[in-house]
Amino acid sequence: MKKYVAEFIGTMTLVLLGCGTAMLVGCDAANGSGYLLTALAFGLTIVGMAYCVGNISGCHINPAVSLGVLMTGGMDKKDFAGYVVSQCLGAFAGSVILALIFKLGGVTDMTGGFGSNGLASVNGSAVAGLLVEIVLTFVFVLTILGVTSKKANHGSFAGVVIGFTLVLVHILGIGLTGTSVNPARSLGPAIMAAFTGNTAPIACIWVFIVGPLVGAALAAVVWNFLSTERD
Q1: How would you class 52 by CB atoms within 10 Å of its CB: exposed for 0-12, middle for 13-18, buried for 19 or more?
Q2: Model confidence pLDDT, tens digit, residues 56-86
């Protein structure tokens, strides 16, 4: 149960700080500082949570990461289900906190949808959005599987590597899909946006569930192949 609580807290914090930063500074292509601040917010949150709850749950805080770990033999199906439920609940809790802060404080949401993901920047193309999310998640999850493997021996630096890899994929992906690579991170804000009358994010949410999961599965398959070859 402690592992599930850790995943709930970690995902809630990721949405609170990552999406909250996006809401505050915006992610307009003309505003490069907003891009970098949002990318750093997501990445640095991962770094912090890795050293906070990593020893308890592994700090997946992402169903795509949990799928990759499941497919490489790092967890069982029961824990996978528990992690995913905890992550989704945590993401929604983070969105609720953001809604309260921005509503009570009268702060303008510069993203228009609680930092949710969308397809507007790729002309509404679900195919393009899927491709972006598959590729970025593949890179992110493959890095995680590699840096956390027993053979990697990166020790205490793993959290830093993972966090800055998330920064990297955000730098490219923010201008395309808002960068999900995390179904829970997308689902929580999309549901909250729908509650406030903005149904656009929830209408395309399937892209940000399917894309990251496919990318993670591909990363697991590739990692299983590479690690077996090394053996």
Answers
A1: middle
A2: 999 999 999 999 999 999 999 999 999 999 9
